[in-house]
Structure formats: C-alpha cells, structure tokens
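Late entry, written up from scratch paper. The run itself happened at the end of the previous shift, but nothing got recorded in the book at the time, so transcribing now.
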Amino acid sequence: MSVFVLLLGFPGVGKLTIAKELGSLISAKIVDNHWFNNPILRLLDEEGTALLPKGIWEHTGRVRQAVLDAITAYSGPSANFIFTHAGVEGDERSMQTYQQFVEAARQRAAVFIPVRLLCAEEELALRVSSPARRDHLKTTDIEMSRSRSQQALVLDIPHQHALTLDVTFMSPSESAGAIRDHVVTCCA
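Output as recorded:
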C-alpha cells in the first residue's frame, strides 16, 4: 500500500521541517512545494523582492504536474510520499494544486491523507522571519505573514482521512508523531 500525505499550511508553519521528521517515521520521500516553485522563481528574482509576473504560477503548476506524472509512472507500488503545499481557502489555484495531488494518489491507488497545519499568528510571524528561509526562496515577510493569518484560512477540503493539527506549541517531532499515528489509523 502506498500513502500520499499532503501537509497544508501557511509559510513558516513548519511543513518541510515536519515532513523531514515524518519521512523517517513512515519511510516516505519528501516532495516540497519549493521543488516546483524554485526552478521558475530562481529565473526571475534571486532577492525575492520584485513582484511576480502574472501567470507565473501556471509554470510552477506544470513543473508540479511533471513530477507527479513521473511519480505515478515510475515509483514503486509501495512507495510513500509527503508533499507540502501552502494552500489557501477560497483560492482557485490552491484548489487546482490540491486536485493534482488527489488525482496522482488516485492513479497510484494510494491512501491520500491531507493534513492542515495551523499555527498562532505571533508564533507564525516569528517562524517566518528566520533568515535561513531566504536561502530557499521562502518568504520572510512578517507583515505578510500576519496579514495572511488575519485574513485567510489554510485550505480545508472535507476528506475522510483529513487531519487538522495546531502545531503552535508542538515540536516537529511531536507533530510528526501525531501525523504518523493518524496515517496508521487511516491505513488500518
């Protein structure tokens, strides 16, 4: 049996950090959303300060689809994957991205497990401000983080295997452990 875990959360919540912890617990390959974004974004603005051109996300979506197509075509039948996505409720592009993951899981007959990672506004602002994030073309804009926390919600799609986890006061290993327990329950 194959498992697709999709970690959904705002920038800075710890998606990749938790994915790394979880990957060792469930023997999964990690496919971070920046794998799709950075090949395109690095062509535009290394400093990450310029406004992104309209339509740029269509290109990252095609990169994502190519990776998912390769996974469905070539990975072993029992391979597990952890994906990350900064999906926002009510955003059409976020929903299209989510559907790409659902369809890839369906094609592989994998158990699909979406996990919403939530974090309190002030803690999220603190996490997003880490200078190490800039090296990976991740946002470090504290005001944008606060605004997003106040005005938006993490993508919340009803699904039989969905889990919502508030990671404000949880370590990455505690978060990964809770998700692993949920994965085991979903696969039982």
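The chain has a mean pLDDT of 89.
(Scratch paper discarded after transcription.)
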